[in-house]
Amino acid sequence: MHSALPNAANLASESTFGVDPHTLQPHPRNAFIYGEEEDISELVALIESSGWVKPLVITPNRTIISGHRRWKAVLTLGWHSVGVEVREFQTEAEELEALLLENASREKTVEQKVREGKAWEVVEREKAKKRQVELAGNHRRRKTSDLVANLPQGRETGKTRERVSARVGMKARTYSKASQVVDLIDSEFSQGNSEVALALRQVLNLQSVDAAYQLLKQPSQKRQQILSAHTGGKLKLTKLMSQKPFDSDLAVENSDTTSPEVDGIKSLAVGDVVFINITWQEKAGIPERKWNGFWGVVQSNNMGIKVNMGVEVINVKSSDLKSVDLADEQLSQLPEVAERILRLRMAQLDELEVTMLNFMQQQVLFTSRQLDYLEYMESLHSKD
Fold it and tell me: Which helix (H) or strand (E) holds 80?
C-alpha cells in the first residue's frame, strides 16, 4: 500500500520528501513524445558516485512530470526512496505544458520535436478555448450569433501553428511536412509495418525532412520498396528516388557486402561488431552520439557505413568506430549474442528490460546470469 502524500495544505511546509520510486508512474505522454530508448548509463554512474539525485516533480496521484530518466536510474540502482516535489495542476493541459517545459533543454531528434509540437498544439487549443470563454464573458450582452462570428477562429489556428513551430525550433512549413511524416510513421507501426516505419524514421531524423516528405508522397508500394532497399544499404536514397519505375533488382545489383578499405582505416564487412565512438566536439548536436559506448553491427558499407543498433540504423564514418577484435576466444560468442540483443530490441519492452539491454550492449563478455536473463526475455517476447 502506498504511503500517503502530504495534502495540499502541507505542501508549502513539506515541499520535498522521499517516496518509493516503485510507486511512481511515468506520464502517459512522455514515452509517446520522447520514446522508450534512452541511454541512462552515464546518469546511473553519476548518481551512484554522488549518492544524490535532483528531486522529481510529480502530481498528487504519483505521476512523474519531471525526472523520468532520473526515475529509471534510481530504479536501476535499486533505490527504495527518492526525493520528490508535488505539484497540483488544474487541467491535463497544464500538466502537459509543465512536462514540455521541463524537457525544453534536452537534445531532440526531428521526430521528438514534432511530437512535442503535437503536444503543444493540445496545450494551445486549450488556451485558445479559455481565451474564447473569457471573450464571451466580456461580451455577454451581444447575441450568440454575433459573438461566434466575431471570434478569430481561422486567425487563431494560424497563430497556434506559428507558435508551435517556433517553440520546437522549426519553420512552420518544415514542421507541417515533418508532422505529416510522423503521422505516417505511426500509421505504419499500427499496421504492423515496423520495418518501413523504422526506415522512414531514420530518413526523417538522419537525412532530412524534405527527403522523408518526398517518400510520403510516393505510392505505398513504391515507398516500401525504396525504404527496404535504403535500410539494406543498397543505394543512396536520392538515387532510389530517381528510379522510374523503381527497380528492386537494380538495387540488389548495386549492393556490396564488403569493402577493402574504409577511409584508409580498416577493412569492414557486413556483420562486423563495432563500438560507436563519435567525437562530441565535432559532432555536437548529432543524434547518433547518444550511442557512444554502445556496439552495433555493420549493416552496409557500400555508400557510407550503416550500423544497426537494434532500434535504429545510424550513418557513421570509420573515424566514429572502434572495431572489436574477435580473435580472442572469449569473444567468440559476441556476434551471436549481438544478433539476439538487436532482434530483441524490436519487441515491446518494459523500462527495466530496456535498461538491461542497454547495459549488455556496452559489454563484450557476458556472464551466465546475463545470458540466462537474455533467454528469459526472448521467451517472453517470442510472439512480438
Answer: none
Helices (H) and strands (E) in the chain, counts: 16, 11
Residue ranges of domains in the chain: 8-102, 110-170, 173-253, 258-323, 329-380
Closest CA to 86 of 23, 14, 25: 14
In the chain, the percentage of residues whose pLDDT exceeds 70 is 76
Cβ pair 67, 56 in contact under 8 A: yes
SS3 359: helix
Say whether domain 258-323 belongs to CATH 2.30.30.
yes
Sheet with 16-19, edge to edge strand ranges: 16-19, 82-86, 56-58, 64-66
* Average of per-residue pLDDT across 264-281: 73
CB distance 54 to 85 below 8 Å? no
> What is the per-residue pLDDT across 115-159, written as a single tens digit (0 to 9) for each?
999 999 888 888 878 777 777 666 555 554 444 444 444 445 557
Contact between 371 and 337 under an 8 Å Cβ cutoff? The reply is yes
Distance in angstroms (rounded) separating the CA atoms of residues 54 and 56: 6
Is residue 195 pLDDT above 50, yes or no?
yes
In this structure, are strands 56-58 and 82-86 parallel, antiparallel, or unpaired? Answer: parallel
Residue with more model confidence, 327 or 73: 73
8-102: CATH class: alpha beta
Closest CA to 97 of 116, 72, 112, 71: 116
For 41, phi then psi, to 5°, come to: -60, -40
Residue 381 has pLDDT above 70, yes or no: yes
**pLDDT of res. 152:** 46
